Amino acid sequence: MIGMHFGAFLTLLILGLIAAAIMQFAIRYRALGSVDGFFASWIAGWIGAWLGSPVLGHWAFRIQNIYVIPGIIGAFVGAFSFVALSRSLGASALKSKVTTMPAPSSTVSEPMRKIS
Prior knowledge:
Elements: H1 6-26, H2 35-56, E1 62-63, E2 66-67, H3 68-97
Antiparallel strand pairs: 1-2
Helix pairs in contact: 1-2, 1-3, 2-3
């Protein structure tokens, strides 16, 4: 799988795109609110599709030496894992940045008095 042909790369790219598009637009489970999150999910989906056949096995039909069913399952797992990880890291980073305001000091200065 390391030295793959362009057709296999393109097949994995399409499987990752399908998984990222369904996660981003149909299910609305997003990592970031912008296009950056979609592209990051797409890359994670590509990696998941690449690992799908070696992990889940070689079954069903294949295109360009890529087994489609394990690839699409791997793409969904990769995209979901990325979103879940980025959300959990974002939530913990948000919690660490929240600060409380200091309590007001108890000493109140007296107003200036007019000297006559």
